[in-house]
Amino acid sequence: MREKYSKEFINQRKKSWYFTYGLIAILIVIVFVVSFRRPPDYVVKDEISLGTHVRVVVSSKYSGKILDSIFREFRRIDSKFNPYNPNSKIYRINHSNGNWVEVDDEILFILKKSLYYADLTGGAFDFTLGRLIKLWGFDSENSEKRIPSSDEINETLKHIGYDKVEIDGNKVRLHDGVWLDFGAIVKGYAIDRAVQIAKKIDPKATGFVDAGGDIGIIGPKFGGADWIVGIRNPRGESQQDTIGVIYLKEGAVATSGDYERFFISNGKRYYHIFNPKTGYPAKGVISATVVANSCLDADALATAIFNLGIEYSLTYIPRYGGQAFIVDENQKIHKTKGFLYFEQVH
Amino acid sequence: MKLFGKYDFVVLSVIIFLMFFLLIVRIPSRDSLKKIAVEINGKESYIFDKNGIYEIKNNGKKLMTIEILDHKVRVLRSTCPDKLCVKSGWLKNSNAAIVCVPNRIVIHYKKFPDFKRSGIDAYTW
Amino acid sequence: MRIKNKIFRQVTIGILIAIGAALYLIESLIFFPVPLPGARWGFSNLVVLITAVNIGLYETLMVSIGKSVVGGLISGRFGNIGFLIGLVGSVGAGIGMSMVHRVFKKNMGYMGISSIGAFLNNLIQISLISLVLKNELVFYYLPYMTFLGIISAFINAFISANIEGRFKEI
């Protein structure tokens, strides 16, 4: 009975089928595009820099360029900020015999940031411990590590104090033979720079920068998922022995622990984070992890926690813009309330 | 056309197989670390693990009242028009959820991940 | 069913939409065990099934949109999120059923087409809810909805097969 259908009707009928085929074709195309337009695979590169193991994981069209630039930047920062290397700028400032030294914007920035954190934490974060660190032998891997006599420590304590740093415009003067050591902050700064570089080269890049356990996120995993970061058990056998895990899409995390650089003498552990008042390693905390927007902030706060004490840290670290996970000397875990946010997948 | 054709039973069995497959796939897990999470607009806004009656607010606007009792949860009152969330009663299964589409709210159990088994990308130390 | 001219076709669509809207209203009053918006028994898909098998795709689209819109207006759900989800699900099911019929012709009976339609409808609805809520837990309800969907698909198929003969008399 087909011949009885009007032409217009048959046309309309055909049109509706074309419409459907078109719709399905579009759907298939969308599915294909979504599944095939995946970002490039992750490229991993490891190098020793800043006295530690640096790993960059990045996914980008320009991952080679990003990796090269990041490691170049790490080497540059390492040679500039290592206070025990006679060719570094910081070494020159430390050995200027109390004269005014002109510094560039980068050092000025680090200096001002350090002063800010020293003020904020009432000296719990101190960047003028250079001589103390040298005295204990924590300035380099090869130095002989020993417990100094109390006389030596008292003598060295005279050459410590962030109030002995004077800044005038772009000039710095160090009083009382103070030595700068930005070790607690420069790693964080380098990571922040690395993240910045990656994002500048390719705003769509994702990945992370890990320098000796301090991590800065370039972008979420596969563009949307969290990076899973394990928190090391400070008394664990290995780095892979974790006591917690956090999920990060952005921002940074830094941990300081008494297991990073230490020696044991008469069954007692002596490590590289000092109490600027006593001249001996800080007590009460064995590991502090801080999540913050920038790795520099996280790094500074994680170090400060060792001298701030647990009660104070739990209250004040969130006000300084970080969330903290602290292990005390009895291996009990203390967390700021906001830290819970990072322990879940969002 | 007939009620049943040549391939009808194939289609039916495929669908029924799919149904059972989906049922089996989500057998409730025995996770002890369960808390009750409330998502608003896809953003986790509340986490509860204690008994009590709680108000769910978004931007200061009261949206619903929920009751939590012995790891079960139900919606007591809601501002949504159809009240489907209230009608759905107690939520007991850890893989299910109470949803309120008009308010964009999902109430479900949140399992706190067992990190020892999950793939860790990096370590902070 | 032979549709000879435009007017006859429009009248047929109109009648089917009216029946569909009435079924839509009735089924929204019947208790449905799955508490999701837009989830219903799906008896109103009867008219979509009949149209898809006996008339054509164009009419199927008209009927599935029409019965949802008119039914939504009558039941006061028009413009609701549940209504929109139901509308998309029912249109998707209509297209799916038309295609299945076109591909399999006589090899597929009402029962097969109807259950495919019901399953598609559920799948689309749950996917949309999951998208709106940004939460995949709602897929928990899919097997239950599939089970209930098969029941109503059987009822729909049974009715369609029985009234087909009477259709021919028109």
What does this structure look like?
The complex is a heterotrimer of chains A (346), B (125) and C (170). By secondary structure, chain A is an alpha+beta fold. Chain A has three domains: 35 residues; 98 residues, T-fold; 121 residues, T-fold (Roll), CATH 3.10.520. Chain A has nine helices and 15 strands. In chain A, the strands form four sheets. Chain A has an eight-stranded antiparallel β-sheet with strand order 1-2-6-7-10-13-14-15, covered by helices on one side. Chain A has a three-stranded antiparallel β-sheet with strand order 3-5-4, with no helix packed on it. In chain A, strands 8-9 form a two-stranded antiparallel sheet. In chain A, α2 runs antiparallel to α7. The longest helix of chain A is centred in the N-terminal third of the chain and has 30 residues. Chain A starts with 6 loop residues before the first helix and ends in an 11-residue tail after the last strand. The model of chain A has no long low-confidence stretch (mean pLDDT 87). Chain B contains two helices and eight strands, in the order αβββββαβββ. In chain B, the strands form two sheets. Chain B has a four-stranded antiparallel β-sheet, with no helix packed on it. Chain B has a three-stranded antiparallel β-sheet with strand order 3-4-5. In chain B, β6 and β7 form a beta hairpin. The longest helix of chain B is centred in the first third of the chain and has 18 residues. Chain B is extended and about 60 Å long. The N and C termini of chain B lie far apart (71 Å). With 170 residues, chain C is mainly α. Chain C is globular, with a radius of gyration of 15 Å. The mean pLDDT of chain C is 86. At the B-C interface, α1, α2 and β6 of B face α4, α5 and α6 of C. β8 of chain A pairs parallel with β8 of chain B.
